[in-house]
């Protein structure tokens, strides 16, 4: 929640990529339909606070990104890059999962960001952080680019579709909404995204954590 001493409105950044074709590949936890439905319920509570301002991804597209193995950013040959790192990426995930165990993502709060509203989670096992580190240390980034390092686990519930300023009071209302959602994760996957944000795509590989399930 923002301090009461700062009444400035939020000036959103409209997500112009929403619904457009794209080419990206992500390492993700596999979310069950029930987990996605629960996240969608949070989304609906969010958009009710400021109607008409958000793109609302359907439940099936709601996701958590561990790492963008092939980033959404343009400027390089994505097919050639995937052909180079696809095999090592699959091997890395399979090796990691063999030594890992099922985990819990505990969503506990909402945050209004410039591009939308995110639900923030914790992984108390530390396994997501370790996988991110292993990806950065193992896979070569695209030519001329550097790996990004991520320290937050989140799911983007809604993305701004309108640029009208959001009053600070509305930001506070959204961030004060109660969140207590625990998501059980028993598999990790590599997902190819072809319509942003994960509206359409295909699962390249799905691997059980510690042979769960």
In short:
With 213 residues, the chain is α+β, with helices and mostly antiparallel strands.
Question: Measured on Cα atoms, how large is the radius of gyration?
Answer: 18 Å
Q: Can you give the helix content as a percent range? A: 25-40%
Order of helices and strands: EHEEHEEHEHEEE
- Number of E-type strands: 9
Please give the domain count: 1
Q: Averaged pLDDT, please? A: 95
**Outline type:** globular
Q: What is the CA-CA span between the terminal residues?
A: 39 Å
Assembly state (oligomeric): single chain
CATH-derived topology: Cyclic Phosphodiesterase, Chain: A
Tally of separate helices:
4
Which structural class matches the secondary elements? alpha+beta
Q: CATH superfamily, called what?
A: Cyclic phosphodiesterase
Largest sheet geometry: 5 strands, antiparallel
Identify the strand order in the major beta sheet. Answer: 2-6-5-4-7
Question: Overview of this structure, please?
Answer:
- This protein has 213 residues and is an alpha+beta fold.
- The chain has a single domain (21-211), classed as Cyclic Phosphodiesterase, Chain: A (Alpha-Beta Complex), CATH 3.90.1140.10.
- The chain has four helices and nine strands.
- The strands form two sheets. A five-stranded antiparallel sheet has the order 2-6-5-4-7. A four-stranded antiparallel sheet has the order 3-1-8-9, covered by helices on one side.
- Strand 4 (103-113) and strand 5 (116-122) form a beta hairpin.
- Helix 2 packs across helix 3.
- The chain is globular and about 50 Å long.
């Amino acid at each position: 929640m923002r301090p009461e001493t700062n009444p400035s409105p939020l000036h959103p950044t409209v997500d112009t990529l929403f619904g457009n074709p794209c080419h990206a590949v992500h390492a993700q936890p596999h979310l069950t339909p029930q987990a996605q439905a629960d996240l969608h319920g949070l989304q609906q509570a969010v958009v009710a606070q400021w109607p008409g301002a958000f793109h609302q991804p359907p439940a099936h597209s709601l996701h958590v990104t561990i790492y963008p193995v092939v980033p959404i950013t343009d400027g390089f040959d994505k097919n050639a890059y995937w052909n180079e790192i696809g095999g090592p990426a699959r091997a890395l995930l399979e090796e990691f999962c063999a030594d890992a165990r099922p985990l819990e993502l505990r969503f506990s709060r909402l945050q209004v960001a410039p591009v939308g509203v995110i639900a923030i989670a914790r992984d108390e096992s530390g396994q997501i952080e370790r996988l991110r580190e292993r990806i950065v240390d193992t896979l070569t980034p695209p030519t001329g680019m550097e790996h990004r390092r991520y320290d937050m686990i989140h799911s983007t519930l809604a993305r701004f579709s309108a640029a009208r300023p959001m009053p600070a009071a509305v930001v506070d209302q959204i961030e004060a909404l109660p969140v207590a959602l625990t998501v059980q994760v028993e598999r990790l996957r590599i997902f190819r995204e072809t319509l942003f944000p994960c509206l359409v795509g295909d699962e390249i590989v799905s691997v059980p954590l510690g042979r769960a399930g």
